[in-house]
Structure formats: C-alpha cells, structure tokens
Amino acid sequence: MAREKNLQDTTLKEPVDFTLDESKLILRGIAQELDRILQMLHGQTAALSPCSNGQEENRGEACTPKPEEDKRLKKAIAEVRLDPSTANPYLKISPDGRAVKMDQIVEGAYDPWEGFRRTRHRYDGWWCVLGREGFASGKHYWEMDVRGKMEWRVGVVRESAPRNGFKSLNPKTYHWTLKLQFGRLMAMTVEVTKLASCAPSVLGVFLDMEEGNVSFYDVRNTFYIYSFNVSFNLDEKIFPVFGTVETRREMRILN
After folding, report:
1. What is the DSSP annotation of the chain?
2. How many separate helices (H) and strands (E) can be counted in the chain?
3. What pLDDT is stored for residue 116 in this prediction?
4. Rounded to an integer, what distance in angstroms lies between the CA atom of residue 136 and that of residue 245?
5. pLDDT surpassing 80 at residue 141
6. 96: which of 85, 126, 240, 251 lies 20 to 30 Å off by Cα?
7. What's the pLDDT tens digit per position in 46-58?
C-alpha cells in the first residue's frame, strides 16, 4: 500500500520517469477508477444529461437541422476498421475490427501489458486506437454506435501526432475530436468547448480534406454538432481515432 501511495503522490509533482511496471500500476489504477465512476453513473444518465426528460437544451445555430447533408455524406462513406497495433494495451478490439471497449483485467490471471514494447505508433497513455487506413485526400464519412455510453472520444488525428504518455489530445497535438465525459459532450479544442447538444446515440464523422474541416453529426436526429477547421498537411495522412475507458459497453463502427 505504501508503494502504491508513493506512486500516486508522484503524479502531483514534477514529471518523473517511471519503469514499465510502475507505469502499468498507475495506468491500471486510473482506468479502474474511471470505469468504476462511470458504472455508478450509468443509472443516472438522465439526471446528468443536459437533455433531461427527453428534451434538448437550446442548441443554437451550431445545431440547426441539416437534412440536406445526407446525400453528400452517403457519397463519402468510408470503410473504417480499427488497427490493433496502435491500441492501448488496455483496449479490447473485436475480431471484426469494428468495436472497442476497455478490457476486463483479472489480477494474477491476465495482464494485457505482457510482452508490450513501447513504440511511437501505439498509444500507451490515453486509451485510444486508430483506424487501420489513413486518408491523404478526398471526403470520407463514417458512423459510430455510441448508444448507452457515458464516456468516449471520436475524431481524427495526424499520422505523426504523439501517441505516448498523457499529452493533451487537442489541435496542438494534431488531434481533432469530440469527447463525451460523464454524459457531457465537449469539443476538445485547446480551451475545451462545452456543447449544449445531447449526447448522440449514433455519431457521424465527416472528414473533408479538400475544404479542410472535420464535422460531427447526430445521425439519428439529423443534427449538425460541431466542426474543426483544419489546415491539413497534405504530406501526412489523417487517421480516424477512437477512445474509451468503459468495460461494459463497446463503441462500434457501423458502416
């Protein structure tokens, strides 16, 4: 217990180098605590949501219905699959490469970090995974089933973006994502943008390399949620990125 307390204390001080075993202990503790909190809150979604009693907050101009987008998005449907070689060891990828959730850890019986080797291509801090294919041009659209979840991250990332440790995942590190945390929806800008939109059950992501933007949609309610305007470096590919710490509910690619 003393050893564990010491490790926790160091997270509040100046950055230090940890051994792999120490890092695994810290990460496991963080992941398990986050998942425990989320499981406690699953039964309180309505109370925490900005859309109580099935009614949505004032969405503002950014949430005006745009059904005319439907045809344009369908023409850009991409075949997206998850790349296990980029996944944080705590994540469990489905055999078909369409779904991800946090794996259940069985102390003394199963250690997802066994045989792990740190590389710059794999997330070893944040619980994220990339899509298998990156995009260098064109328009691309995919949808995620995130119904019933209270925590997820979905968006795109530049190929050379840092994937080690706990650097902020925002445009400064070439991550353009939406995040749901404790039932609240946010755009992960440098200063986080809290959104009045309800958490969607199906999230659409539209990457337009030509216009330089990433847009997000509530598919079931045909609402536009938010866009990042991006000056893409066309010498690098842009990859879909996904993240979660929940063990009970997976997030699944639909198209």
Report:
1. -HHHHHHHHHTTSS-----HHHHHHHHHHHHHHHHHHHHHHGGGHHHHSSSGGGPPPP--GGG-B-TTHHHHHHHTB----B-GGGS-TTEEE-TTSSEEEEPPP-TTT--TTTT----TTS-SSS-EEEBS--BSSSEEEEEEE-TT-SEEEEEEEETTS--STT---SGGGTEEEEEEETTEEEE--SS-EE--SPPPSEEEEEEETTTTEEEEEETTTTEEEEEEE----TTS-EEEEEE---SS--EEE--
2. 4, 13
3. 81
4. 29
5. yes
6. 126
7. 444 445 433 333 3
CB 174 within 8 A of CB 157: yes
Q: Report pTM.
A: 0.77
Highest mean pLDDT among 41-55, 102-116, 182-196: 182-196
Q: How is residue 249 annotated by DSSP? A: -
Coil vs helix vs strand at 45? helix
- Quick one: average pLDDT of 135-164? 96
Give yes or no for residue 59 having a pLDDT over 60.
Answer: no
